[in-house]
Write a structure and sequence with these properties.
Elements lengths: L5 E3 L3 H13 L4 E3 L13 E3 L2 H10 L3 H5 L9 E4 L5 E5 L7 E3 H10 L8
Parallel strand pairs: 1-2
Antiparallel strand pairs: 3-6, 4-5
Helix pairs in contact: 1-4
Protein name: FAD-binding domain-containing protein
GO molecular function, one term: FAD binding
Keywords: FAD, Flavoprotein, Monooxygenase, Oxidoreductase
Length: about 120
């Protein structure tokens, strides 16, 4: 029998862990402080790095769903002067797309059975 696992977290890390445990058939429960899926509002954007968050989404079978909301154009930051002459640019070629926190949270919540969240 697997040990009981309690996840006390309302962020994407706790929800990702819950989904990975669900995907692997390991029992757990999530203790969520928010009253509803919409409680956190829109939130900031998160960059999804290949070696961490992208890997977790791939291993849990959610990468294709993530791709529907990913913003790859937000990986490049360009600074210009008043005449729009480019001063510098960083991030070109990086594989770190961004996603809105609420969208990522919804993807993860949809992948976790409702009875696992308290």
């Amino acid at each position: 029998m697997a040990p009981a696992i309690a996840i006390i977290c309302n962020g994407p890390c706790g929800l990702t862990l819950a989904h990975l445990l669900e995907y692997k058939g390991i029992d757990y429960v999530v203790y969520e402080r928010d009253e509803s899926k919409q409680s956190t509002g829109t939130g900031p954007s998160l960059n999804i790095r290949p070696e961490t968050r992208q890997r977790a989404l791939r291993e849990g079978g959610l990468f294709d769903t993530f791709q529907k909301y990913a913003r790859y154009e937000d990986t490049v930051f360009t600074r210009t002067d008043k005449s729009r002459k480019q001063l510098f640019q960083i991030g070109r070629g990086r594989d770190t797309p961004e996603i809105n926190l609420q969208q990522l949270r919804q993807i993860l919540l949809d992948a976790i059975p409702k009875d696992k969240i308290r």
